[in-house]
Amino acid sequence: MFQQNLVIAALAVLSVTLSACGGNSVMYRGGAGHTGQISSSGPTSLDTLAWKYNLPDKVYSSPVADDKNIYLGCNDGNLYAIDQQTGRVQWKFRTGGNVESSAALSDGMIFVGSWDNHLYAINAETRGVRWKIKAGGPVSSSPVVVGNTVYVGSEDGHLYAVDIPSGQKKWSFKAEGSVYTSPAVKDDHVFFGTLKGNMYALNINTGQEYWRFQTRHKIHSSPAVDENNVYFGSDNKHVYAVNIKTGQQVWKKKTAGQVLSSPAIDGDNVIIGSKDGYIYAYNKDTGYREWEYRTGGPIFSSPVIASSTVYIGSTDHFLYAINASNGSLRWKYKTENKLFSSPTVNDGKVFFNSVDGALYAVK
Question: What domains does the chain contain, in order, with CATH numbers?
Answer without folding.
Answer: 2-362 (2.130.10.10)
